Amino acid sequence: MEDEEYHEYVRSALPVLRRLAYVLCQDGHRADDLVQNALVKLYLAWDKARRAENRNAYARTVLVRVFLSERRANWARRVVLVDRLPEQASVPGPDPAATLALRAALATLPPKQRAALVLRYYADLSVDETAEALGCPANTVKSHTARGIAALRRVLPEEVAATQDWSGR
User: Fold this and answer.
1) Where would I find the RNA polymerase sigma factor 70 region 4 type domain in this sequence (predicted)?
2) How many angstroms separate the first and last alpha carbons of the chain?
3) Does the pLDDT of residue 1 top 60, yes or no?
């Protein structure tokens, strides 16, 4: 019975988790790996997760922690040789050039700043929800967010930076 409940939850949450993972790592294959690893951890802790007040927040937290953990372990720096190029997924945005510029700039940020910005402005979480997901105080989230936005404004072309809503809710 619990397995069926878990499978039902995964079916409903998978698209959101995949999009969040993609924004965090900016690689479709790696995003799938992040989601898979997060779902394994979620399954192993399903008793706790199913009792959580907000399962989506719990799953998001697991995913972000898997992302940060793999960043610390230099997972992204491994070289993988392949015999053909993978198909590129197209992710439509309001302005493809601005989206690409923002993603490239986002990729230059340290992982915790990137995670704070993605959770705050992509996943639309509050400061407190982001702090809970990252396992840090709200003031740390505010600091990571402010530093991340400042770094993005320094590297993004002025016309791209002007189109972003970094109001800080």
Assistant:
1) 100-152
2) 40
3) no
**Nearest to residue 150, comparing CAs of 96, 104, 113?**
113
Q: Which of 48, 76, 104 is the last residue of a domain?
A: 76
Q: Which amino acid is at 114?
A: R
Are 108 and 154 in contact, with CB atoms under 8 Å apart? no
Distance CA 139, CA 103 (A): 25
Angle among Cα 67, 85, 78 to the nearest 5 degrees reads 40
Whether 81 maps to a domain, the answer reads no
> What CA–CA distance (Å, rounded) separates 134 from 80?
29
- Flag whether pLDDT at 169 surpasses 50: no
More confident residue, 96 or 9: 9
Please tell me whether residue 5 adopts helix, strand or coil conformation. Answer: helix
